[in-house]
Amino acid sequence: MKIEGKHYRSVWVDEDGWSVRIFDQTRLPWALEILRLTDEEQVAHAIRSMQVRGAPLIGAVAAYGVALALREDASTERLETVCAMLAETRPTAINLRWAIERMLAALRNQPPARRVAAAYAEAKAIADDDAETCRRIGEHGLPLIEQAAARKAAGEVVNVLTHCNAGWLATVDYGTALSPIYQAHDAGIPVHVWVDETRPRNQGAALTAFELGRHGVPHTVVADNAGGHLMQHGQVDLVIVGTDRVTRTGDVANKIGTYLKALAARDNGVPFWVAMPHSTLDMRVRDGIAEIPIEERAGEEVTELTGRNEAGEIVRVRVAAEGSPAANPAFDVTPARLVTGLITERGRCDASEAGLLSLYPEKG
């Protein structure tokens, strides 16, 4: 993605050749701040605090965290300990475990003297793989928007609703759910995005709107509860969301509130598509509702909000009644029966075991 004419990925190695740079996503959209990470503890904090977030991105950043840790001690014991620690930072997104397992496979049989260079090389390969995967997801999702545009009158916009942030900030580049939208916009297709605010952390209002605005894509931020109303009145042509984990049977874990959008889409005959990179597929799980661990985050994310006041200061305010506790499940699971299909880097398929194996036969 370009910011002020300069292309950025969401994670990169600094000019010193070893430290890692990320955007502090907790400061967006009010301030564009770049953090420098120099050890695995800083990486773990960045992931836990959601300075970096989005399933594919946290996997790539964690991979670089392994490389940073091995600079100090490249022993096998150190490798195993650091990988175990980083794998526990976020429980729901399977990409994190996928990246850690890939790092372990690449490094376990390397002699300690070669591990640091090998770790940086593998982390870069993971990042490059994610960027290319997301670009291809865009290619395979673009026809869905083209087909919607073909059903419209000349010049009439295609309205896409999305939930949370599944753009370049959630990945290394391009995004998952937003990748087809960017490609449609760049191809001259008139596309407009309904951006769910995505409470409680407002990733839609803060991050998706920031991205789309910088890229010049027309969009409108709406309250999370507005999606069903928009669908009832024919103002949504299709829904495209990202995912943090897809089961063998096509169940989809994504940001809390996704399930409700899928129900509304089914009731109104609106196609509900999920953009899925291969690193998000978990063939070890069949029943998403029963088996996917759902992260429970701090209640303060629900009872308090961060924003900019009239003086231009970034402040945090309480919005819930004093003394009221809050529950904060960060994800929900949409059953496969509500998913129109999956958009992957290999093509589109049904949200089912047969559909997934048609694109990923090696995972059978």
UniProtKB/TrEMBL annotation:
Q: Which GO terms describe its molecular function?
A: S-methyl-5-thioribose-1-phosphate isomerase activity
Record site feature (Transition state stabilizer), residues = C164
Query: Which reaction(s) does its UniProt entry say it catalyses?
Result: 5-deoxy-alpha-D-ribose 1-phosphate = 5-deoxy-D-ribulose 1-phosphate; 5-(methylsulfanyl)-alpha-D-ribose 1-phosphate = 5-(methylsulfanyl)-D-ribulose 1-phosphate
Positions of the catalytic residues = D244 (proton donor)
Q: Which domain of life is it from?
A: Bacteria
| Keyword entries, A-Z | Amino-acid biosynthesis, Isomerase, Methionine biosynthesis
| HAMAP family assigned to the protein according to its UniProt record, in alphabetical order | Salvage_MtnA
UniProt function note: Catalyzes the interconversion of methylthioribose-1-phosphate (MTR-1-P) into methylthioribulose-1-phosphate (MTRu-1-P). Also catalyzes the interconversion of 5-deoxyribose 1-phosphate and 5-deoxyribulose 1-phosphate. Part of a bifunctional DHAP-shunt salvage pathway for SAM by-products.
Provide the protein name. Answer: Methylthioribose-1-phosphate isomerase
The lineage is: Bacteria, Pseudomonadati, Pseudomonadota, Alphaproteobacteria, Acetobacterales
Which gene does this sequence derive from?
mtnA
